[in-house]
Each structure stands twice: as C-alpha cells, then as structure tokens.
Amino acid sequence: MTGQFLLFPQELVDEMLDHLDHVSLKTCSLVCRAWLARSRSHVFGTCSLDPTNILGFRDLLQSSGCTFIPHVRRINSYRAWENNRCFDEMVADLRRLARVHTLDIFLDFKAFDGAADALFRTGFITAFPQVTHLILGCDNVSWPAPLFDTICIFPALQELRIQEMTLDFKLTAPPVSAVPPLGLHHLQLDLLSTVPILGWLHAFNRLSGVDSLTLPLLQRRDGPAVRRLLQELGGNLYHLDIALSWSWKTFANPATVYDLSLHPNLKTLAISDYSEYPLENSDPNPMTPFITRLTTPALECFLLDLHLSMYQNMDWAALDEFFSPARLPRLRTVLCRSRGDQTFLRGALPILRASGVLWTERL
C-alpha cells in the first residue's frame, strides 16, 4: 500500500496527511522526503512550553540540527516559578520562530511578586511581535497588570482572547502611548476586561473596527457602560456571542444591556442563558421578545443554549415563525443546546424542523 500511496499526486497525499493523528504523522514524516514537510507542519504546528520542558526546548532550538523551526505556528505556554528565568533568557532563540501567529500564554502570578514588567512588557512575551492571535490568562494576581501595554507589543494583532481572570485582578490605566493595534477586530473578553478593553478602543476611535465580539455574563454595574459601547458598534458587528441571565440581584438585565436591533448585519448570534429561578420581574417569557428584536436579514447561524425546564411556557411558536426561511433567507443553522427533552424542542419548532436548519443537542 505504501508504494501505491507514493504514486498519488502530492496534493492528494497532503489531504490524506491532514487527517492523520499525531502518532501516525510522526511515522509518516520518516517514510520519504515528499511526506516530510506536510507531516511536520502538523507535528510541530503547535508547541506547548512549561517549566518541565522549557530547558529541553531551548536546547533543541540552539542545536545545529534543528529543523522544525519553519513549521511552528502556535505557542502554548504556562509560566510558573520553576525554570522561569529560562523563558526570558531564550528570547533571541524564540524570535527565530518567525511563523508563529498564535500565542496562548497563561501566567501563574503566585510565583511573581510584583514582577509586572517581567511578565507583561519584557522578556518572553516580546519574542513574537508578528503574532496575530493572542490568548491571555492568569491566576493568583496580587498587583495591577499593564494589560494594555501587552496588547501593544503585537502591532499585527487581529484577535484577542482574555481568559477568565481571578476576581481580584486589576489593570493599570492605559498610558497615552498605548495605541490599540489597527487590525484588531475579534474580541473574546472576560468579566474584568470587558469594559476596560472596549472603553480603550473607543477612546482611540478603534471600536468601529470590531466585527466579532464574545462577552461574558455581566454584573449589573457594568451594564450601562457596555450598552453605550455596543450602540457605537452598531452595524459593524457581524458575530456576537453573549452570556446572560434573567435572574435578579447581581446580574445585568439583558434587556437593558443588549438591543439586538442595533446590529442589522449580524451573521452569527450565540446566546448562552445561565438563568436560575426566580426570573427577574417574574416574566415567564423574557427570551422570545429579546431575540425577536433582531433586524438582520443576513443571519446565517443562531445558537441558543438554555435550561429547557425554565422555558416550557415560552412563546416557541413566535420564535419558530420569526426564524422561518421566508424571513431569514440566509439562515443555515439553528442550534438549540439544552438541558432537557430534545423531543419537546423539535415539536415546539415545526417550521424550523421542516426547513432542515434545526439542530438540537443535549448538554
């Protein structure tokens, strides 16, 4: 079989290699020169660095026989106290990884007393100025962090994802020199970074460049600021992913934060509902009027994640009619993920089921 495989056109061989697992790819990289590059592009496409392997990775980079450098496109890193200094000392070697476009870095703060610059503005994180996708998370923070300066290290940045930070996480104010990257358009923010990041972009007239936005479950105090900033985004937004809750007390009321009619060009809308009893104002049907404020004929995908037991009395018929193909001709997928009976969902949405766009998934 191997001999026959070698006779296939290279583009077909590449397609086959793209679907193999990691172990098989390592084997294939040893078969022949024609299979080497494609196999290595997957084997070494993502490199994970942590205190247990950083010294070995440094030695590999510095070896004269190192051949994987052109294939590395993503770095996943976890920084803690052990071997921490090595991360910063090998910056010159890491800069040889010029094709890295994604940096996923998690910082364990308990090991770094007051070392904000060492983690956020100097050393290891400066080795990849060409990065277009940045994923940043941290834990055990005890001092303000210069997050805005970190973002500015990457002038080509297009996508920013802030992972869930600890609740006592604090940011230093953005300096006047901290100008947001011009191409930044995709944001996935956590509770503590939402208002500061959106406000920063607004201050530099860069908020209009954001076309994809993922927001967390908001506290009530953040609702007014987020609403104002979303109003400015308006029709520029193509993808919106929000978490919400209709439960009272600390959570922001979705109806006072999000006005879906302000975003007429949405192509993708995802709503994750974390409501628990009681619903605010005891309204048994808050979701249908909230969703049906959509005014976008461009909608292609709608995802709704909710606890079905809380919405048995929802006006499903109105929702079914609202998402009809006649009204939304570009709609291709309606995915309802729920904790509950999927049979009920399929029966409650007959128009969508008949159109073939309805998918259900049990959580």
TrEMBL record:
Superkingdom to which the source organism belongs: Eukaryota
Which InterPro entries does the entry link to? F-box-like_dom_sf (IPR036047), F-box_dom (IPR001810)
Domain F-box positions:
6-43
Pfam families named in the record: F-box (PF00646)
Name assigned to this protein: F-box domain-containing protein
What species is given as this protein's source?
Mycena venus
